[in-house]
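Go through this pair.

…
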Amino acid sequence: MKTKMIILLVFLIGSLFIIACSSNVLPNDDGKTTSPNIDDNSSLDEIFDMTEVYFDFGDKQLYAIAILDDSIIFEGNNNAPDAERNNRIYYRYYFSTSSFVHIGTFHNFYMSTGDFTFIDNLIYFDSTLYTDMGAIYNAIFMIDLEQNSLTSLIEDMHSEPIFHIMPYKDGLLSLKRRLEDGYEISYFETFCLDTKKTEIILETKVNIESYEGSEYLSYTIRDDMIYVIYYDSQSDDNIVIRVYDENLKVVRTITFGETEQRILQNRPHTFRLFGDFAYIYNYSTWGYIVRIEDDDYLSYIHSGKMLRITTSANIKDDKLLLWEGFSVNVFLFDIKTGTVEKVLMDFDDGYNIMYITANETLMYICIFPEEISYSNYRYFLHSVDNLH
């Protein structure tokens, strides 16, 4: 059965999947945080079991994007009444000193995917920004965890807003789009971290009005093989998963099977692989866990409204941590057996999950009451070992 899919990008999607942002990196502290001497070997000694924590964010609105052994990385903006809202500020909170260190700030932020890529002691992320003249452009930023610094690596004035980056060979791989003569061109572009050079390695196009043609919708990478959710108007199964090898040859095609009507109700946004399973999150804010069968089709396992995965993949005994936004639902998904186990979370009545960030040992949980207000958010640290 063919699935007719709207191919045009929707740029202003909302804060549930996209984080709006800015350029001009400021290397120095803004004077409102402390910069203590940090022991490189400092780490979190206590294992928390649903411990509420209190942060003095001042006039800033901050969200945890990564938990490290010794600290939490926060992203946010200035929430003061007279402040610019189109900035992005990054801080590192050290457990050992209970202090924040300013990493960097950039301005003229427009939007981003909200995805972060970790390579060694570096964090890479995308942002779409605007110039002082109002022109839109894309950029890749890097947070150096050894230097506690923020750097803009590359700026692209030609692609459309929203692009996804992932580690690939000796650098990064981006899925981008540009408009040209009535067509939307989707293409994969590599960025070499050593030479800082880019190269387009795959490209296809679709007609904006008729949707005739083909398009790369989303992707993920495993062992330098690119798994692409691919649209082709001329195929009987016009949306499939194509697998490209290191030489960019298609070596496998996976159909959506019985999951087609569930997952493809809207454009896929996030695509990840875990063992024999895949996670797909679409622009209808539904998340799905599916199994990749030996016969090259997907079978349904689990789904949920705003079902998200945490930053870390395998957090506990080959289990993936899942959570549903605006609810109290938390799950552990066993990537060996394909079973889903609900986790009991002891939240106060009337509170729901805003987001969860986690690593292999620790969860950072933000909850909110029925009356949503940033000032009413509460924060907890929870040991992964104590999930039950």
About this structure: Confidence is low (pLDDT under 50) at residues 1-47.
